[in-house]
Write a structure and sequence with these properties.
The protein is built from 15 helices and eight strands. With 367 residues, it is mainly alpha-helical. It folds into four domains: 49 residues; 107 residues, HUPs (Rossmann fold, 3-Layer(aba) Sandwich), CATH 3.40.50.620; 49 residues, no CATH class; 118 residues, Isoleucyl-tRNA Synthetase, Domain 1.
Length: 367
């Protein structure tokens, strides 16, 4: 029968598809159950199916979590109540107006926070306290959370929770990620989760590919907004960052194959540079200096938790190579000069490949 979706509920065809799957599985017996029981069955089924889809989509995107954690497990195991009890014993939780409050203000928060409401129900904050305590108990001495930028007001209370357990505040860090503006040919793609109008990660990967999606998402600092143009990500031109960088790797592979065919080198992946003193052109020196900075940029990226640093470096290296290749021949009549330039471009190829690998992006041999 026709059902009118309440305005404050999620819309979309995926809701109807889930409902049909549940009906096919449970049959008419679902309609004979009490509302509360039927709703729980539907909710658990839908959550399971959606989670399976999220897992599959992330795997296609090149992201695999070692541990999927259920908030419900914190209650089933008694960890939430244990955390509240431990804080009571430390004297950092007190009762007021029938509720339990955590003295977060003593640890630098703007005010104290409720962990158990006056109706006996715990808050999200209570389960977050237990969850982070469990993370540390797994043996990690540093915990890094990735949150949406709209949750910035939550940081102080979580800092308080970590410090109240006896750990140092610097052992906990939050990365706030800004939103992505999805464009198509420069025009915004309109979306509304409530209305069921949205583009999923799977849609993006299916349209532009894993490499382009990952590279574009990593092209900006997480604390800056990102305009992701789907049409741009599919272009085979210098305007498309992933194509611009990957083309360098493929182009150099082609050069090395030709050099091997002409007997200038025996192995495409030779390990020792030759005749390097012949590299004296300005563009060659620029390439060498750029190559020399790779380690420093990787260390900076790791230390600051900013993978876009490697993206920026790869774009710079690709630009230096394109400028060099457009002006100078690698394989020349001068065998010693050819050996020197082959050594140089092989180094570029290796660094491009390693940099792309760190970002989870492939380095194609041909394009």
């Amino acid at each position: 029968k026709d059902v009118v979706f309440p305005e404050d509920c999620y819309q979309g065809d995926y809701i109807k598809e889930l409902a049909q799957e549940i009906l096919d599985l449970e049959g008419a017996s679902l309609l004979e159950k009490e509302d509360a029981e039927a709703i729980e069955i539907c909710a658990r089924f839908a959550a399971g199916k959606i989670l399976d889809g999220i897992r599959a989509d992330l795997l296609a995107f090149g992201v695999e979590f070692d541990n999927w954690f259920s908030e419900q497990s914190l209650y089933d195991s008694g960890r939430v109540q244990s955390a509240i009890k431990a804080f009571k014993e430390k004297g950092v939780i007190y009762e007021k107006d029938g509720a339990l409050w955590f003295k977060t203000e003593e640890f630098g928060d703007d005010k104290d926070r409720v962990v158990v409401r006056n109706n006996g129900l715990t808050t999200y904050f209570a389960s977050d306290i237990a969850y982070h305590d469990e993370k540390f108990e797994r043996g990690f001495n540093r915990v890094i959370d990735v949150w949406g930028a709209d949750h910035h007001g939550y940081i102080k209370r979580m800092n308080a929770a970590v410090e109240a357990t006896g750990r140092k505040r610097e052992q906990f860090e939050v990365i706030l990620v800004q939103l992505v503006n999805l464009l198509r040919g420069g025009a915004p793609v309109q979306m509304s989760t409530r209305a069921g109008e949205f583009v999923t990660l799977k849609d993006i990967v299916d349209e532009v590919g894993t490499d382009a999606a990952r590279f574009m998402f990593l092209s900006r600092s997480y604390d800056s907004g990102l305009d992701f143009d789907l049409e741009l990500a599919k272009q085979k031109s210098a305007d498309n960052p992933v194509y611009y960088v990957q083309y360098v790797h493929a182009r150099i592979t082609g050069i090395l194959v030709k050099a091997k065919e002409e007997g200038l080198i025996h192995e495409i992946e030779f390990s020792k540079g030759q005749e390097l003193s012949r590299l004296v052109e300005d563009e060659e020196l620029r390439l060498i200096k750029t190559l020399a900075g790779f380690q420093e940029q990787v260390e900076k990226s790791a230390a600051t938790l900013h993978p876009h640093v490697i993206f920026t470096y790869l774009m710079s290296l690709a630009g230096a190579f394109h400028g060099y290749y457009n002006k100078h021949k690698v394989i020349t009549e001068d065998k010693a000069l050819s050996a020197a330039r082959l050594s140089l471009v092989l180094a570029v190829k290796k660094v491009i490949r390693n940099g792309l690998c760190l970002l989870g992006v492939s380095a194609p041999e041909r394009m």
